[in-house]
Write a structure and sequence with these properties.
By secondary structure, this protein is an alpha+beta fold. It has two domains: 131 residues, Thiol Ester Dehydrase, Chain A (Roll); 93 residues, Hotdog Thioesterase (Thiol Ester Dehydrase, Chain A). The protein is 17% helix and 41% strand. It has five helices and twelve strands. Strand 10 and strand 11 form a beta hairpin. Helix 1 packs antiparallel against helix 4. The N and C termini lie far apart (42 Å).
Length: 246
């Protein structure tokens, strides 16, 4: 069951390039899915009575271009299927002419907020979205890993980075990964795809390290990323890029 809304990009999302960040593009899509869940009575408040929350485990995002400030968008989302432990959802950002600017295929699990671990999908929560129950396990492309990094930056988790699930909201990982590449890279390249896998949550007051490596033999500019706290890997990602016009 597809759900959609129209959305105008506010000025405060604008970057130095005049478009918005990957994190804000994801935020817009997540906002619309939350509106759908709230209307169905299975949003944050609906999940609270079960002591549960949704946690994303992998996002595969393709980007034709990132929206620009004041642009009118058509934002859509659809929970496609679920099984005992996983739920699959797609998202999209379209321009006014119906061209898809960005699209996400994602995998979610249900999270016990007290025990801090994965729990079986609650059918009373998943079924109202129109998602089809299926035993099939969908697998998104694997994310390449790396050992030695070309560079890294540390980031301290702020109080306002923590969401209602009690850990760092998933969109902050995009900011850490992209920012670690430095201003010069971001001024000359734009992302065309992001494949990110979340492995362990990041909690309040943690200090994370965002490490990256350039893939030198790739057909298109590609960077590999790793978010870690100490020896614990929290997330890994692979991002492809295209040069910005001179």
């Amino acid at each position: 069951m597809r759900y959609s809304e129209d959305y105008q990009v506010p000025f405060f999302m604008g970057t130095a390039n005049g478009d918005i960040s990957v994190a804000d593009a994801v935020n817009i899509m997540m906002l619309v899915s939350e509106h759908q869940l709230d209307q169905l009575g299975v949003g944050v408040a609906g999940l609270a009575k079960y002591g549960a929350g949704w946690v994303i485990t992998q996002n595969q995002m393709t980007i034709e271009r990132l929206p620009r400030v004041d642009e009118q968008l058509h934002v859509w989302t659809e929970a496609t299927s679920y099984n005992r432990l996983l739920c699959y959802r797609t998202y999209g950002l379209d321009d006014q002419d119906g061209h898809t600017l960005a699209e996400i295929h994602s995998t979610w699990v249900m999270f016990d907020l007290t025990k801090r671990k994965m729990m079986p999908i609650i059918e009373a929560v998943a079924a109202p979205t129109g998602a089809v129950k299926s035993a099939k396990v969908e697998r998104l492309p694997r994310v390449a890993k790396f050992d030695a990094a070309d560079g890294s930056r540390d980031y301290r988790v702020r109080y306002f980075d923590i969401d209602f699930n009690g850990h760092v909201n998933n969109v902050h990982y995009f900011d850490w990964m992209c920012d670690s590449l430095g201003t010069d890279w971001l001024r000359h390249y734009r992302p065309t795809s992001v494949n990110i896998k979340y492995e362990q949550e990041v909690g309040p007051d943690d200090v994370t390290t965002a490490a990256f490596r350039h893939v030198v033999d790739a057909a298109t500019p590609t960077t590999l990323h790793r978010i870690s706290t100490g020896d614990q890997v929290n997330a890994i990602a692979e991002i492809t890029w295209a040069p910005l016009p001179a």
